[in-house]
Design brief:
CATH superfamily of the largest domain: NadA-like
Bound molecules: 1,3-dihydroxyacetonephosphate, iron/sulfur cluster
Number of domains: 3
Order of helices and strands: HEHEHEHEHEHEHEHEHHEHEHEHEHH
Structural class: alpha/beta
Number of helices: 15
Mean pLDDT: 97
Number of strands: 12
Length: 305
């Protein structure tokens, strides 16, 4: 089937089955184009918690679909490619976290949303790259020690802004950790007027070169409202499709053309159609994990209100 026919079929099943298609900013262009909602991890969680659809088709990676299921347990959540995982999320499990908590019995635990559900279940609070600083400053202001898992680079960034020290897990995102200062400097030489937007999953030396440190949705908002016309993006380069579509008069350059998350690219139109048509690759979780994990995610969402 060609792409036009695939899209028509997807749209037909979407309305017949009262489904919604949620898409992360790093997804391939053809997936962006079928989205009901596109966003960062925080926006997608909010959307998943308030949708009135019966089925959520999640075009992203496993921890994101799990988070949607936790927030909407009565709905069917489909991940069209079940092997679309996140290597950073897989760098920690519940046992690792419990061992760390035994070493620091008085610490509160803040987990990045890029974690398995069972890690969220053993955490006090969840965060995304969009709200980590605010949550540390507002919700964990009184906490003595704070365990921050699994991203050491995000922990470093939040620590620098808030002045708080963390007991940080040594995880990282392989895609963002590969972006170098040299990549930024090379692009800056080619595009001296460009603003440098950096995702906080990048290493500290790269963060140091940022004009702005932002989540993916933060980048979209900033690029749309800034007077600047050129931007260098230190993040997964799939975001550029949306940035260019929404801002045709501006120019966007990836810090590194190698910044591709292979897991994010595993979702295809064929897989979305198969998943929706046959209702396959449903995300399921043990009820006790879901209810415990929901507490840490809900606390994060509540703070917004
Ligand atoms: P955000 O879209 O929440 O900034 O996350 C980036 C990311 O790496 C998701 O896997
Ligand atoms: Fe995980 Fe990094 Fe890919 Fe995001 S970009 S899904 S953090 S590996």
């Amino acid at each position: 089937m060609d792409n036009t026919s695939l899209v028509e079929e997807i749209k037909r099943y979407r309305s017949e089955k009262n489904a919604v298609i949620l898409v992360h900013n790093y997804q391939p262009p053809e997936i962006h184009d079928i989205a009901d909602y596109i966003g960062d991890s925080l926006g997608l969680s909010i959307e998943a918690s308030k949708t009135t659809a019966d089925i959520i088709v999640f075009c992203g990676v496993f921890f994101m679909a799990e988070t949607a299921k936790i927030l909407s347990p009565q709905k069917t959540v489909l991940l069209p490619e079940p092997a679309a995982g996140c290597p950073m999320a897989d760098m920690i499990n519940a046992q690792d976290l419990q061992n760390l908590q035994k070493e620091h019995p008085h610490a509160r635990t803040l987990c990045y949303v890029n974690t398995p559900a069972e890690v969220k279940a053993y955490s006090d609070l969840c965060c995304t790259s969009a709200n980590a600083v605010t949550l540390v400053e507002k919700v964990l202001a009184e906490a003595g020690e704070i365990i921050f898992v699994p991203d050491k680079n995000l922990a470093h960034y939040v620590s620098r802004i808030t002045g708080r020290r963390f007991i940080a897990w040594e995880g990282y995102c392989p895609v963002h950790a590969d972006i170098t200062t040299d990549d930024i400097q090379q692009q800056k030489k080619r595009h001296p007027e460009a603003e440098v937007l950096v995702h906080p999953e990048c290493v500290p030396d790269v963060v140091d070169l940022a004009d702005y440190v932002l989540s993916t949705e933060g980048m979209v908002r900033h690029a749309g409202s800034a007077d600047t016309r050129e931007f260098i993006l230190a993040t997964e380069k799939g975001i550029i499709y949306r940035l260019q579509k929404e801002n045709p008069e501006k120019a966007f350059y990836p810090a590194s053309t190698a910044s591709v998350c292979p897991n994010m690219k595993k979702i295809t139109l064929d897989k979305v159609l198969a998943s929706l048509e046959e209702e396959i690759f449903e995300v399921t979780l043990p009820p006790h994990i879901m209810s415990r994990a929901r507490e840490s995610i809900q606390k994060m969402l509540d703070y917004r209100d």
